[in-house]
Design brief:
The protein is built from 15 helices and 12 strands. The chain has about 375 residues and is of the alpha/beta class. Helix 8 links the parallel strand 6 and strand 7. About 40% of the residues are buried.
Length: about 375
């Protein structure tokens, strides 16, 4: 599993330009007018991970299979979207399907690119989007509460749980706080996720700056950083222009270009890393002569659950996981060296998989 991140923002903030660059396609039409994105564009990208390349080199694997991340470019929201303004509720529905939201915020001055509000103020833009999502959630919750009244009166356990969670979310929203600020117990986690509230999604602010500010950001992105810190959210600084340019280059040319711009890595790498941290994701590897493959799991995943990411039968018939820490695999020259040094461990059903583990699962069919 990878994860799905929805790219949202006001019109003309650079969402589609960023999407095109990240997915290395021209699937989303980047044009200087509002609503150039009519349908959500979906793009899968390989997650860059230098560790996978090292594993391939040592194991001499014939094929490299990175894990994937899905970006969904969702059309520009405007003030009043929750009431159907602009292209309205169809876009709000698309947000419900993603794991996290990337708010792209305009942090650059450019007289040739129209701002829908006629000014550059990324904090106000973020508040506009958040307000629309909160209003949409309130409307959704009120409708759902009306629809489950009868089941609640009848003592339906799921309906009672749902009502309790909906009312907790509504209380937060009516106080001006997003649903993600509600503290949820482990036993409520699944039911909470099924509510698919827009403001329950983790948020990553993407500060789209001009080329000259890509390395250090600017006053606009500094204000976003302050806002994100106050909210407990994350932010990254990216120049969509630069990302678009390097997406057209080969790897060597792209690296030279980044160095000229004073950048150590592409914005895609920073964005994915921030997304992984936001969703508490980790990577484990399976390595052999045929292929070396990366797999994404939630932090805290047990070995059987991690095996289930490959195939459900692996989880059902799980016996044990032969485990080598990434650093041991590299320093000892692969599986055989790790075995001889006593660094291959046999882990059972309660083992919590660690980021970078190289695993081989044994299971009953």
């Amino acid at each position: 599993m990878g994860f799905k991140m929805g790219i949202v923002g006001l019109p003309n903030v650079g969402k589609s330009t960023l999407f095109n660059a990240l997915t290395r396609t021209a699937a989303a039409q980047a044009a200087n007018f509002p609503f150039c994105t009519i349908e959500p564009n979906v793009g899968d990208v390989a997650v860059p991970d230098a560790r996978l390349d090292k594993l391939v080199e040592i194991a001499k694997s014939k094929q490299t299979v990175p894990t994937r991340m899905t970006f969904v470019d969702i059309a520009g929201l405007v003030k009043g979207a929750s009431k159907g303004e602009g292209l309205g509720n169809q876009f709000l529905a698309n947000i419900r399907e993603v794991d996290a939201i990337a708010h792209v915020l305009r942090c650059f001055e450019d007289g040739d690119v129209t701002h829908v509000e006629g000014r550059v103020d990324p904090v106000a833009d973020a508040e506009t989007i958040e307000t629309e999502l909160m209003l949409a959630d309130i409307e959704s919750i009120e409708k759902r509460l009306q629809n489950i009244v009868r089941k609640v009166r009848g003592g339906d356990k799921e309906a009672v749980q749902q009502e309790r969670l909906l009312r907790a979310a509504l209380a937060a929203l009516e106080e001006g706080n997003p649903a993600r600020t509600v503290e949820i117990d482990d036993e409520d986690a699944r039911a909470w996720k099924l509510l698919q509230l827009l403001t329950s999604k983790p948020v990553l602010y993407v500060c789209n700056v001009g080329e000259a500010d890509a390395a250090k950001g600017n006053d606009f992105s500094a204000k976003v950083a302050e806002m994100a810190a106050a909210q407990g959210n994350s932010h990254v600084v990216i120049s969509a222009q630069i990302e678009e340019e390097i997406s057209q280059l080969d790897q060597e040319e792209a690296q030279m270009f980044l160095e000229e711009m004073g950048l150590h890595e592409a914005g895609l790498d920073r964005l994915i890393r921030a997304g992984y941290e936001l969703l508490h994701l980790e990577t484990y590897f399976t390595v052999g002569p045929k292929e070396a493959r990366a797999w994404t799991i939630k932090a805290g995943t047990t070995a059987p659950k991690a095996a289930g990411v490959i195939h459900g039968d692996f989880e059902k018939g799980f016996i044990r996981a032969e485990t080598i820490a990434y650093d041991d695999f590299i320093s000892l020259g692969g599986e055989q060296g790790a075995k001889e040094a006593g660094k291959m461990r046999s882990e059972g059903k309660t083992y919590i998989v660690k980021d970078g583990d190289v695993l081989h699962f044994l299971f009953n069919t």
